[in-house]
Design brief:
Number of strands: 5
CATH class: Alpha Beta
Bound molecules: FE2/S2 (inorganic) cluster
Number of domains: 1
Structural class: alpha+beta
Strand order of the largest sheet: 2-1-5-3-4
CATH topology: Ubiquitin-like (UB roll)
Shape: globular
Distance between the termini: 30 Å
Strand content: 15-25%
Order of helices and strands: EHHEHEHEEH
Largest sheet: 5 strands, mixed
Radius of gyration: 13 Å
Oligomer: single chain
């Protein structure tokens, strides 16, 4: 899968909403740093977090086992499974929030906002 990613902190800086359908188009026009906005391929069997790291990006994590939410991302477009054993409550998985340490997109293309640990609903779960 080809992942296009955006740093959640950029949304906060610009006052952009996660639900904004133009979000990635706005990001493409905003002259952002390559660590905040870009794309990479995820190799088969890699988690999204591993793929980010292989491509030289330092995305947040702590437990690497689905137990802390530090690695949370929002799937804005595409499909990414949500394995059964993890800490995220259904209200968040229903909104497309996933843990990058235990899963990866399964669709050919995906748009992912990473650094979701700064989203209030996620940060209150942080361990
Ligand atoms: Fe802890 Fe992913 S790093 S849930």
């Amino acid at each position: 899968p080809l992942v296009e990613f955006l740093n959640f902190e950029v949304l906060e800086d610009h006052g952009w909403a996660l639900e904004d359908e133009e979000l990635f188009a706005k990001a493409a026009d905003a002259n952002l740093q390559s660590t905040d906005f870009g794309r990479f391929y995820v190799d088969p069997n890699d988690t999204l977090l591993e793929a980010a790291e292989k491509n030289g990006f330092a995305w947040p994590f702590a437990c690497r086992g689905g137990a802390c939410t530090n690695c949370a991302v929002a799937v804005v477009e595409g499909e990414m499974p949500s394995p059964a054993s993890h800490i995220l409550p259904p209200e968040l998985t229903e909104k497309g929030i996933r843990l990058s340490c235990i899963a990866a997109p399964v669709s050919d293309d995906a748009k992912i906002v990473y650094n979701l640990k700064h989203l209030p609903e996620v940060s209150e779960l942080l361990l």
